[in-house]
Amino acid sequence: MNLGHLIVVEGPENTGKTTLAQVLPTALAQRGVHAEYMSFPGRGTASIGAVVYDLEHKPDRFGITALPAATRQVLHLAAHLDAIESRIKPALASGRWIVLDRYWWSMWAHGHAQGLSTTLLNQLVKIECDAWQPIKPAVIFCTLRPAPFDDPLTPQWEAVQAAYRQLVEVQGAHAPIDQLGPTQSVEDRVISCLARLTTLGVLPRL
Predict the structure, then answer these.
(1) What's the CA gap between 10 and 137, in Å, rounded?
(2) 146 FRET partner, CA 20 to 30 A, in 22, 51, 166, 178?
(3) What is the domain partition of the chain in residue ranges?
(4) What residues have CB less than 8 Å from 90, skipping those under 6 apart?
């Protein structure tokens, strides 16, 4: 059986990232591809991601008043590793495609915007990249906009956006990257994604 393909959708909050990632499996199904939506850090039943979500959003349940930025990113890394080994790799091995909402990029971009050292972030990224081996994304789609859709523009959001732009510039040697335009509708973005997958030879031509 052929391995499934990993398709990554990345970008700051409120740029249409999750919406695109959630509709892509349906569009791929119309092309005869069995694809599944997954997200990082995830909240699936009996997963590290669910525990991390509760730690971040209900810290008082654990007697915790605050999570330092470095602690938060290490927790996200643990959730990523759990999802990679317990869900994503088995799904890809069975031939299913995975549309992944977030990748290690999110850990790096948010950590960088929070002021974490590049040395620390690079160490976390190396651990995750080692866990991914030998899998590489077929393509990374990155949604970028001048401002978020629904929330006010903040310095923190701009810092995250700047970090993503940096990743788009420097990561092209490791995987095909497509930056999706801010004026595209969801439908246009889906069409662009399918066209790119076809051009790359990942998706058969109609």
Answers:
(1) 12
(2) 22
(3) 6-199
(4) none
